[in-house]
Design a protein that fits this description.
- The protein is mostly beta strands.
- Helix content is 12%, strand content 31%.
Length: 287
């Protein structure tokens, strides 16, 4: 009897393996990533259209998918039933934790961080105020959030499984940094969203792939990188002479695909990661 259960288990395992092998591979970035990634940009964002309130506003501080909100645009501004809008909000890192030297200055030079919050569809139009349903939400929506006319973001094609990260890829010379990330988290992995200071001015476009790498002992990070670890580590061995980052191979950490881009910034979704990626790690445009 026991052998029958073992055999049955093996058959189930083999069937699951076959099913996994036959599962279609995603060929493009999914819509959630495209419309919920956020961005950092110095481009001017119109702020004259916004969420006023919504249904059950007496005790409601946040609105999510399926609920109704009121926007300060109506027929007088050309709004029609069926019009779609995107909701966004300017955000900042309240903790202000500096992860590498010059991070604050770089973020300010890149522009304002904007969070994608959701999509609206107008269901009733008044003269100066319209009612819209929250068609989808990335995060909670609240009073005062900015409303922008919907613009489609075509999803770029993804690499196949056969196109793995090359840990020995030669440098391309077009180098930037991972300056910040969605929700201002410090460590990022596969499918995480990060913001880099390479953009269209450096030849980056939606669908471009950027390689992420790190130099040992570069000395620019202020938290996780201890000076001298490229040739010694707390007494656990050391070399006869000192080495610096210039004399050692770089460590390639992973790669990602560009979802949004402006002049000198890009939103990057990490698609393949060999180990955790931090603010201050470097990126380059793949050839």
């Amino acid at each position: 009897m026991r052998s029958k259960f073992v055999t049955f288990g093996l058959i189930l395992g083999m069937a699951a393996g076959v099913a996994a092998a036959q599962a279609p591979q995603r060929t493009t970035v999914d819509q959630t990533a495209m419309y919920c990634s956020g961005t950092i940009t110095s481009d001017a964002i119109p702020q004259d259209s916004y969420i006023i309130s919504g249904e059950q506003s007496v005790d409601k501080v946040a609105f999510v998918a399926g609920q109704l909100v009121y926007i300060n645009r109506g027929s007088a501004q050309g709004v029609k039933v069926g019009d779609e809008f995107l909701v966004t909000r300017a955000v900042k890192d309240e903790l202000k934790e500096v992860w590498f030297k010059g991070q604050g200055e770089l973020i300010r030079a890149m522009g304002q961080t904007w969070a994608d919050l959701g999509k609206l569809k107008v269901i009733h139009v008044g003269d100066k105020v319209s009612i819209a349903e929250v068609a989808s939400s990335c995060d909670y929506i609240q009073r005062g959030d900015i409303v922008l006319p919907f613009q489609e973001r075509p999803a770029p094609a993804l690499k196949t499984n056969a196109q793995l990260v090359d840990p020995f890829a030669p440098a391309t010379g077009k180098t930037g940094m991972v300056v910040s990330s969605k929700f201002f988290g410090q460590a990022s992995g596969t499918n995480s969203i990060v913001y880099v200071n390479l953009g269209s001015s450096q030849g980056v476009r939606v669908g471009s792939y950027l390689r992420v790498f790190r130099h040992q002992g570069r000395g620019e990070t202020t938290i996780y990188n201890t000076k001298g670890t490229e040739y010694k580590l707390y007494g656990f061995g050391s070399t006869p002479i000192e080495y610096t980052w210039e004399g050692l191979p770089r460590e390639i950490l992973g790669e990602g695909i560009v979802l949004r881009v402006s002049g000198n910034t890009a939103t990057l979704m990490l698609t393949s990661v060999r180990r955790e990626i931090y603010h201050g790690d470097y990126v380059e445009l793949e050839q």
